[in-house]
Write a structure and sequence with these properties.
Elements lengths: L2 H7 L4 E2 L3 H18 L6 H11 L2 E2 L4 E2 L3 E3 L5 E3 L4 E2 L3 E4 L4 E3 L4 E2 L4 E3 L1 E2 L5 H5 L2 E4 L2 E3 L4 E2 L4 E2 L4 E2 L4 E2 L4 E2 L7 E5 L2 E6 L1
Parallel strand pairs: 2-5, 3-6, 4-7, 5-8, 6-9, 7-10, 8-13, 9-14, 10-15, 13-16, 14-17, 15-18, 17-19
Antiparallel strand pairs: 1-12, 11-12, 19-20
EC number: 2.3.1.-
Keywords: Acyltransferase, Transferase
InterPro entries: Hexapep (IPR001451), Hexapeptide_acetyltransf (IPR051159), Mac_dom (IPR024688), Trimer_LpxA-like_sf (IPR011004)
Length: about 180
């Protein structure tokens, strides 16, 4: 493993134009293109492609096209989980989705971060990433955005259009921008 990929996986600043990372993204994009090009009746082919692309795909889980990701290999999905149309998972850090989750259409899980205070580092295209962890039996309404470094507890529901910038505990309903706990479930 090269230095930039190692730095990325450790959550440190790295350059995404590193040849190894570029090649890893090209490999993932080729698989994503194949997946997104399948027909409705090709569920077996979709499953085969996802098992090659993702780090883990639990039994009974599925994703609807269009699906987008950076690397794929850093995504783990538990059993019986569902990602609806147009999911975007930017997996520059691990993304773990538990079992029995329902991810609504056009949801985004975004692990990438860019320097805020150091304008020169940002201009030079340095970035970092922080993992996202989603517990079991979580439901996201359509259009939810989960930001880097967030953990969401088991049995939590996040309302449509919410932007989750901080951790959410188990068994709550959260909504808004930024998402906040509305009530316990």
């Amino acid at each position: 493993m090269g230095e930039q990929k190692d730095r990325m996986l450790r959550g440190e600043l790295y350059r995404d134009n590193d040849p190894e990372l570029v090649e890893d993204r090209r490999r993932a994009q080729a698989l994503v293109d194949r997946f997104n090009g399948t027909g409705a009746e090709e569920t077996g082919e979709r499953d085969t492609i996802l098992r090659e692309l993702l780090g883990k795909l639990g039994e009974g889980s599925w994703i609807m096209p269009r699906f987008q990701c950076d690397y794929g290999s850093l995504i783990e999905i538990g059993a019986n989980s569902f990602l609806n149309y147009d999911a975007i998972l930017l997996d520059c850090a691990p993304i773990k989705i538990g079992s029995d989750c329902s991810i609504g259409p056009r949801c985004q899980l975004l692990t990438a971060l860019h320097p805020m205070e150091d304008h020169e580092l940002r201009r030079a295209r340095w970035e970092s990433a922080a993992p996202i962890t989603i517990g079991n039996n979580v439901w996201f309404g359509g259009g939810v955005i989960v930001c880097a470094g967030v953990t969401i507890g088991d049995d939590t529901v996040v309302g449509a259009g919410s932007v989750v910038t901080r951790d959410l505990p188990s068994k709550v309903f959260a909504a808004g921008n930024p998402a906040r706990v509305i009530r316990e479930l």
